[in-house]
């Protein structure tokens, strides 16, 4: 339970650039496929996840379009989609957000992604230095928020000019869909605390997360606001700790040193993200010291940009590690695992009962009350046991 006595809000992830069973190889690789994304979204919807994060970037399917597609095949699942200031006007994003919230019947969550890859930003026509991107984003969201909350905005700013902009059709949620943000730099934190509802951190060791939360809380209080907190983590959960660590080793068993070096060079040369630098510092490209805190494993970050750590262990072990983050103030988890369809089932079936989450929704009765033992799926059905046996 969180500090408020409520279970964690637990979201899953749509791997919209592709998926696989091993990092650093094309073996058992699953390319980006909208049909596969639908399978994951429908599984997450049924298995008890409250929502899914849809990533953004040049290598990913466009998050608003993909969310609109998946909303048609799901019932309760919420969609955390990215707004990237500078890739379109705030008025256009306001129309996108309002429409997606309307067609999904109020299931939209918004994720501010200012961007950390200089090369990718240049491809989008954005050439502002790191801290100035947040000055630009502040003007952007002044217009965006006024439009989506009131239908009108006017700004003649340094970066944004919006003259008598209007939005006719409002979102379902009032005053607007919730806004999430993750950023570790001083400029990012100062920008976010005046605007966002939930501050996100990547899965750093608890002591580092505690320092970040304290910093964000102080900055938020100085502006008279209260921000809640979430964490972005991968999960490798198995019935025993030993099995989980074997699965972690297997995930990078086909990852070459050359692939690691190539990925780390890209992170160093193309990213000015403070969060990425903090992720890289946990392992420094070395595979010999990947457990950076009890059960917190940095192997994924050897080649994956952004969130690079996983909680590894049995359900009880992982639940205990999650409790440490909850005690710091974390109330939301955005989770993933490889491959995402199978791991969505494992996390729901193994971990959810340990952390007080209900698991699958709307399950159809399997019997008239007798206990049933799975019999292998034969034509005779399952083995029925008398009640109480």
From TrEMBL:
The keyword Oxidoreductase applies. Pfam families: Bac_luciferase. Keywords: Flavoprotein, FMN, Monooxygenase, Oxidoreductase. Coiled coil: none annotated. InterPro entries: Alkanesulphonate_mOase_FMN-dep, Luciferase-like_dom, Luciferase-like_sf, SsuD_RutA_monooxygenase. The keyword Flavoprotein applies. Residues 10-331 form the Luciferase-like domain. Gene3D superfamilies: Luciferase-like domain (3.20.20.30). One of its GO terms (molecular function) is alkanesulfonate monooxygenase activity. It catalyses: an alkanesulfonate + FMNH2 + O2 = an aldehyde + FMN + sulfite + H2O + 2 H(+). Its EC number is 1.14.14.5. It comes from the Bacteria. One of its GO terms (biological process) is alkanesulfonate catabolic process. SUPFAM superfamilies: Bacterial luciferase-like. Belongs to the SsuD family. NCBIfam families: alk_sulf_monoox, PRK00719.1. HAMAP family: Alkanesulf_monooxygen. Catalyzes the desulfonation of aliphatic sulfonates. This is Alkanesulfonate monooxygenase. It comes from Allorhizobium borbori. The lineage of its organism: Bacteria, Pseudomonadati, Pseudomonadota, Alphaproteobacteria, Hyphomicrobiales. The gene is ssuD.
